[in-house]
Design brief:
homodimer; alpha/beta; UDP-N-acetylmuramoyl-L-alanine:D-glutamate ligase; 9-stranded mixed β-sheet; 13 strands; about 35% helix
């Protein structure tokens, strides 16, 4: 049995429009996507908050997948966090139409005793102060990683820097890495992030894949090519859930394990974007994970340099 | 001795401004960049046109590198093709400030007898009608590839489709693949390009690398990570020159060779963008090509899927 993964993040009702359809108040949120993806690989301890409107069926589904919901607070009389957004044809950028914090406004993550010994921790994109609060409650983590967003880089920079000083890995998209460091060149910007504390930075590049930058080098993976991308919502969080889940599954965090985690994360993201809400991850099987992982591996393989130096 | 590579493309005087400096009337042009890159690997037959103002020193340099200039026309009393452009901090898009066709306006590529037996052909980005004219003059090519641009997709679509029906490989950036096919999803758009004729399409993604799509699958490579990108001008052409050059060097065009060509192209592009004009390629040595190629190979290597399906 792998060690448990601790995930803290939003549990949301999303209203999303893409060129391929729309959903209203569909279950989503970074914590839910990441928890769902990680559940393929390890027991998950989820920390979050919901209102009266969060579907009991969704909570049941998570429980059945081995996600412990003891750390999910329910605030009676309140509504869950809600996000409304849309995507244009190229699917690269979401336009946020509205955000209702609701129960999230006064959220104070408190870790149940059983969670405090989690060895693998993913702090999804929430207020950095809350990420710190979670880190304070975890006793002896083996590997910690955080996500963030442009809003916190601009409005909670000091707290975010405090988080970065304490995590093993920072997960950000390319624009966020540039914004955080003020450096347009990505290789250089990634180097600057490493100086802020984390031993690794993973740069998410949407349809262009993701890169892992560590002191000892770069690793890059393309995204898994899909002819039908239906809704990109949750891709980054599914990636993160698969990533931390595989580390827990392996029980190691060396360079080789991190590269394998990148591949599993990439596969989880590919399943996520094939449908709205959790439908893509719900349909995913371990055998598809295996197959896509091996395809990705083949997609980047090439023979040694034929030139003689 | 490898077979000769035939390259047709512009020979230009570029005036370029980037956040890291500027050059005025510096030697450039797709044919020159591609020829310079290919010259590391195979004898090059260059087809192009220059005016009185093209530096004799640049022509000498090409000759010394094994580039045959018999097919380069000199139009007395006229000026060479000139391009003026600039790049912003993220270096992803050039802004064209001016284009002077000059000698290029009435260019009619005529292949010297010695060129007509070239086995490996790169038609750089010129008017598709001229690309067709070159194809008509090559007797029995082993491998042909073409580049193009948004302007021809819009204004010379029929000629471009005729080119695509006749080449083995189409080289385009992601925006051009989308524009040509009207399909936003890249995997699907690449599939549509294959239906137009070529057996392979290479999608250039700038700093995100490049993908090779063939009927039997996808191959992807990240760009070589550089902390100092000085001027992206010529990167795609250097890629193409390295690509076709390696095929000639190997003398084969199978899947394995194409993947190795992608890697050599990626290395050539990395050298090109490290400085203005030809300075980066001029400094490049075979030993650096070898080293970067092997680093790229290591950058994408990861172990088999640990999960059991």
């Amino acid at each position: 049995m792998p060690d448990s993964v601790l995930i803290v993040g939003s549990m949301a009702l999303d209203t999303v429009t893409t060129p391929f359809g729309a959903v209203e108040n569909a279950v989503g949120g970074a914590g839910v996507y990441a928890g769902m993806a990680a559940s393929f690989l390890a027991p998950v301890n989820l920390v979050g908050v919901v209102g009266d409107d969060f579907p009991a069926q969704a909570l049941d589904e998570l429980r059945q997948r081995g996600v412990n919901l003891e750390g999910v607070q329910h605030v009676p009389g309140e509504r869950s966090f809600r996000w409304t957004g849309s995507y244009e044809y190229d699917m690269s950028d979401a336009t946020t139409l509205s955000t209702e914090l609701n129960v999230f406004a006064d959220f104070n993550p408190a870790l149940p005793a059983a969670y405090q010994h989690s060895k693998f921790v993913f702090l999804a994109n929430i207020q950095p102060r809350l990420q710190l609060q979670v880190l304070d409650q975890v006793r002896s983590p083996v590997f910690t990683m955080c996500d963030t967003m442009n809003y916190w880089i601009e409005n909670a920079r000091d707290d975010l820097l405090a988080v970065l000083a304490r995590v093993d890995l920072a997960l950000m998209n390319d624009a966020e890495v540039r914004q955080l460091t003020g450096i347009p060149n990505l290789a250089r910007a990634a180097g600057r992030v490493l100086e802020l504390g984390p031993r690794h930075v993973v740069i998410k590049k949407g349809e262009y894949g993701a890169s892992l930058v560590s002191a000892d080098g770069h690793f890059s993976l393309p995204s898994y090519p899909l002819p039908d991308v239906v809704d990109p919502t949750g891709a980054g969080d599914s990636f993160a859930g698969g990533f931390i889940g595989l580390l827990a599954w392996l029980g190691t965090v060396g360079n080789e394990a991190l590269r394998q985690a990148m591949a599993v994360g990439t596969v989880m993201a590919s399943a996520c974007v094939e449908d709205f809400s959790l439908a893509g991850l719900r349909r995913l099987t371990v055998s598809t994970v295996y197959e896509r992982y091996q395809q990705l591996r083949n997609m980047v393989q090439f023979a040694a340099c034929p030139l003689v130096p």
